[in-house]
Amino acid sequence: MNTRTLFFILFISIFVFSDSVFSQNDPPQSQAIPVKSFLNSMGAVSSVSRRGESLEATIKCLKYAGLNWLRVGYEDNAPVSDFIQVHKETGVLFSYGLLSGHTDIERLIKEAKQLANEGALLALEGLNEPNNWGITYQGEKGGGRESWLPVAKLQRDLYSAVKNDPDLKHFPVWSLSEGGAQTDRPSIPDYSGKNEYFTSCRYSFCRLCQLP
What we know:
This protein has six helices and eight strands, in the order H-H-E-H-E-H-E-H-E-E-E-H-E-E. It is of the alpha/beta class. A hairpin with a 2-residue loop joins strand 5 (135-137) and strand 6. The longest helix has 23 residues, at 3-25.
């Protein structure tokens, strides 16, 4: 057997062995999903045309990012017409909520119906972080370090108003965010069934990103 033949046999042996070893150690294959499905799993909070945001820039950013859902409410007094324009130009849907410290269910229902009539409504949502933003509902102070009974009553009444409205009853009601932070949990009636989906605020934090 000459040297050339020996090297050829050695090369083939190494190739077959390497292929066998690496194929056994390959990570399991992941199932690919459509980009649209991935984007549908995410959303963003936006004031759309308030708090330094502009309608034109919001539309531009949404088209670039490809997001299909925004969390908004009447807190910033952005015109509902701005939300409708965003929807018409991007297809984005809105979860419409009371947001921080607000209790006007009648207004929320009225404006949510405008969004629904344009095909722009995704869901209705309860209070935002009542542990940080207290409320006064039906003359009672609640949230924060106060009793959360007024908060629970507000969620109950919001759910009832939505489900008794012929135009909105088919839309889901999301819970208030930061449920579970109440100080008087044992004394509050169980209104946990007054929503179809649980809402929670989670903030990303990077220790390496802290400013000096």
